[in-house]
Amino acid sequence: MVDVFDAISASKEAEVKINELLDTRSIFEFVFEIVKTSGFYSEDENFKLIKALNIDTDEASNEDALFNTWTTMGANLNTSKTQEEFNAKFALFVPIILKHMEAINRMSA
Fold this sequence. Notes:
Elements: H1 2-9, H2 18-22, H3 25-38, H4 44-53, H5 62-77, H6 83-108
């Protein structure tokens, strides 16, 4: 999970670019596969949380949706008091981030 933030923080720019976020896709996919096999996503409470976080919003574009989700994820991760809490919060956002990344890839294809 730290790999995602290391990839983003390597940027010399003050603002994160959409391509930098998209470059982390393989890391998110890797985490998703690990978490999926653990059963975390099939637990009823976690599924309901992911579904609630994944509501469609009125962003002007898929890029805005990804940025807004990323910002929300970062704000939530910053409130984590333990590594376990950080990991669980991160895992909740993984499928949502991947959904937005996939939407951007479909539009650019």
